[in-house]
Amino acid sequence: MNQFYASYNRSIKEYLRDKAIIGSTFGMPLLFIFIVPVVFFGDVPRDFLPTLKGMNTLAQIALTVMIVGQSNLSGSIVADRERGLYRKISSLPLNPVKEVLGRVFASLVFSLIGLIFLSLVGLIYGAEFSFSIVDLIIAIFFLLLIFIASVGIGLIISSIINGESAATHLGIGLSMLIFFIGIGFPYTQLPSELQVLSKINPLTAAYAPILYLLEGYEVLGYNPLTFVQLTSTIVLSAMLFGIGLFLYKNVAWRKR
Amino acid sequence: MNAIVVKNLVKNYGTQNILKTVNLTIEKGEFFSLMGPNGSGKSTLVSIITGTTPITKGVVNVYGHNLFEESKNVKSLIGYVPQENFSSPRLTGRENLLYFAQLSGQDKITAKKWVDDILEKMGLTEDADKLVSKYSGGMRKRLEVATALVPGVKILILDEPTTGFDPAARKMLLGSLLEINREGITIFLVTHIGEDAGVAKKVAFMKNGKIILQDDPKNLKIRFKERTTVDVKLAIKDTHIYNKLLSFNKGRKVIETVDGYKVYCDRPEEILPQINNYLNDIGSPSAKVELNPASLEDIFFFLTQQESRYDLEEEK
Known about the structure:
The complex is a heterodimer of chains A (256) and B (316).
Chain A: H1 2-17, H2 19-40, H3 49-82, H4 85-89, H5 96-124, H6 133-160, H7 164-180, H8 192-200, H9 202-215, H10 217-220, H11 227-252
Chain B: E1 2-13, E2 16-27, E3 31-35, H1 42-49, E4 57-62, E5 65-66, H2 71-75, E6 78-81, H3 93-103, H4 108-121, H5 137-147, E7 155-159, H6 167-182, E8 186-191, H7 194-197, E9 202-207, E10 210-215, H8 217-223, E11 228-233, H9 239-248, E12 254-257, E13 260-265, H10 268-281, E14 288-293, H11 296-304, H12 309-315
Parallel strand pairs in B: 3-8, 3-9, 6-7, 7-8
Antiparallel strand pairs in B: 1-2, 1-4, 4-5, 9-10, 11-13, 11-14, 12-13
């Protein structure tokens, strides 16, 4: 527990004290909360605008969670490796899994800060959501799936990429790519090939139920809460996390 | 009981033979220093002893525990300070220490008490709550040495800790190491700097994956008393002069120093008149030529960088 807590404590302090991390994680989604309605929702009837703003806020929260898992986590691991920290900590009687879970938990708390901040900004800006408490709990579960899958990708990036800048940019690039295929541009607006992809990709597939539960069927365009869809999303997210953890323990931890 | 015993250690990376039958014994409480050029295998040896690299053949025992069979026990006895600045610049000195203490398994209350003690011991109490990014190079390295001294550590392994330091910072760090050693901690110092190695009780030289010589620094200076260097001090340094010194020394080591050149030679009496005559010929009356006994750093050059008599004997 001490090792987990030490790792968590260090990581969360590093995140909160790094202006570049705060800027890249919250800055872009914050900007999108204000810009997207101006650019894309100009012709939308006024009655429908709060729902679209709500939809946009949810998309930006998902983007933040993806950036934290894929970019911040991988960037911080690679930066620590470049700094020689892994040379040092691998000489300690330390379990790599406890160490990385501390980092992951710090990323979760950082994502939560982003979630609260962006939700408040969205609400102040006129976003509207309609849901029950049960819907909200289920939606949080799916947001956790996005987080778990993103962490998996982040751990894979940190295992195969050398250089903090390369890892961070690859993480941001992947987050943006996923964002545009099924999150920023929802299912109904995608060409048919990308619609299929958005149902398979665990990150976009986990986002669909969030949109469905908090904004309704009309906004998403299909029912994502089917057995097959849910099973594949959970299994693929867990697989990404498992592969990431395995690579971290066997590659990233030992890489010099 | 010995602190570290390395027996017939071999390490291969693919077909490359990095360590060739290394044998080494470091006594409990000893201050041991290892010198060797880049690529000699020092870092590999250190990474094996710190339990981060597997071995190909041989045995490594730390305080009687087999390194690979009782890895967890051994790791808790060793405090390692890599060459890089691994402490986080965005955390304070105190936070960095707390991180490593808890990572080593201490609970928060014990860790906090230890942090206060070690900060005082390393002379960092006043700067404990400053971000490490505000620390000088010397302070940061002292902090990193402190991270390796968590309770239970009996051996401190440092990889070139004074690289890039000014003399005052080096002196301070070496003073701290001697203090730590006096308290009974065994020290294994890897360095390129002869003066640093000179504080050790035993110095070993490594070349091409082998320990080629190990002895007390005083004994080494006696053994190498016939070895001298010719120090040529000049107002202006020049490539022609360097090339000429190199030719007098038959292509053997000549290095540039702050105020001239240092010529490593076996028979200074032969080349000294040649150098004096040459400097007179080119009109450098202000030049100063001195014969000096070999320092540990000079012995290091003799042993590891030149085709010296000692090397040839070792090769045979």
